[in-house]
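Suppose you are handed a protein chain with no further information: no name, no annotation, nothing but its sequence. What can you learn? This example shows the usual starting point.
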Amino acid sequence: MESVGEDPNLHANRSNSDVLSACSICLESVPKHRASTHEKCATMFCDSCLGAYIRLQITQGKWKLECANCNSLLTLDVIQRFLQEYPLLQEHFARLVTDARKDPLVKTCPNCCGRHRVKKDKTKRVTCEQCHFDWCFSCHAPWHKAMSCKDFKRGSKLFKEWTKDKTEGAINAQPCPKCRVFIQRLDGCDQMSCPRCRTTFCYLCGERIVYSKLLGGHWSIYSVLGCRYIYKPDRPVQRKVIRGFLLSMVITSLPILATIFVVVSPAYGVHQLHKYIRKH
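A reasonable first move is to predict its three-dimensional structure. Written in structure tokens, the prediction is:
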């Protein structure tokens, strides 16, 4: 059995017993067949909590997962058991493990995270068997025919510098804040929609557009969520002070409005009831 760190320390209790045990995380009593016990520290976790704990650790970029109670490592088969219904996390975890081991002959596809092993470390071009994406095994970038890895990286750097340059007062391209795909605006307004992930963002500042009934939206001049380029773009300190002051005023007024509502509502209700009684 392949493990991430130590020998197996965790096993699942899959008996048909209905005996209840308390989970050390949520403290709920669950049947033993829906729980797992850590042999080293004898701590019991329900499958729901243990699965959530494992998935949280992976999303945080960890590949060596320790027991939630002690420092011993969970085995690879236990981790994969709780990732069966999460294929994206499975791919992410496989990439974390592969990259951490730093095997010179094994790397993951930059497009789909599929693992690839080559026979020689001098191999350059690799075609992913899963997504058919051509990429360079040396620099882990899309395949660059008739171009060295150094020249390709230099060209990528020049492209990023070009996107920041301004033409007729506007930058040449803006990356999507979610998927990082560069988008160039030819005409129209500053509100952009990424064709890849459908994220709505501002072409001026590159931030995702957020709207709140209480705080306003991205195009609100005095809102803390407003774009920094539509109100005092050359005076960031003054802009932040004014917007922060208005936000504090809104927050301060909330208890007052709530008090007025609590006081007025019963009186208004009594008034309406009195009118109803007089009519009938």
